[in-house]
Amino acid sequence: VVAEDPELYPEATLTIVTEGSIPGDLINELSKLEGVKKISIY
Predict the structure, then answer these.
(1) Would you kindly state where each structural domain of the chain is located, as residue ranges?
(2) What phi and psi, each to the nearest 5 degrees, are found at residue 25?
(3) CA angle 42, 15, 38 (to 5 degrees)
(4) Are the CB atoms for 41 and 28 separated by under 8 Å?
(5) Is 13:5 a contact under the CB 8 Å cutoff?
(6) Which residues pair with 2 in a beta bridge?
(7) How far, in Å, CA of 40 to CA of 1, rounded?
(8) Contact at 8 Å (CB) between 38 and 32?
(9) Residue ranges of the alpha helices (H) in the chain?
(10) Cα 40–Cα 8–Cα 37 angle in degrees, nearest 5
(11) How far is Cα 34 from Cα 28, in angstroms, rounded to an integer?
């Protein structure tokens, strides 16, 4: 997990690297969090 401080970076990002698949339910919950503008999956 790598996170940038939103106090220092106006467009702060959070990067999470996983070994497996991410459940759709988790993506939906993350998108509901305050401050989340978009979610990208590669």
Answers:
(1) 9-42
(2) -60, -40
(3) 70
(4) no
(5) no
(6) 15
(7) 15
(8) no
(9) 24-31
(10) 25
(11) 13
- Which amino acid would we find at residue 26? L
Counting every residue written for the chain, the total comes to: 42
Tens of pLDDT, residue by residue over 4-42, are 998 999 999 999 999 999 999 999 999 999 989 999 988
Rounded Cα gap, residues 20 and 31, in angstroms = 19
32: its two tokens: 């509901």
> Chain-centre distance of CA 25, in angstroms?
14
- Cα gap 13→2, rounded to integer Å: 8
- Structure tokens given for 6: 């939103």
pLDDT of residue 23: 94
